[in-house]
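@channel sequence for tomorrow's demo:
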Amino acid sequence: MKNFKMILAAVALSIVVAGCSKSKAVGEINKLKDEACACKDLACGEAVSKKMLATLEDLGKGSEPSESDQKAIMKSMEELEACVGKLK
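structure tokens (generated this afternoon):
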């Protein structure tokens, strides 16, 4: 799980640098965070984390987000990670 967290963080940073639109990125990341936090077992949490990686890759093809959008994305990702971490 630790390697997965490192991969998730690396992808997130590349997305933040590459950019994405607020309406799409923040909304989709928040939706996945909520989905992960509703999981009752680790398999569910890991599946949502994989969706997060795929979503981040897709969203990284837009313009650079504002600083506040970057913070919102990172906060949601940290919350998602915390929720999945509780499932161990």
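heads up for whoever presents: Helices lie at 2-18, 22-37, 42-59, 67-85.
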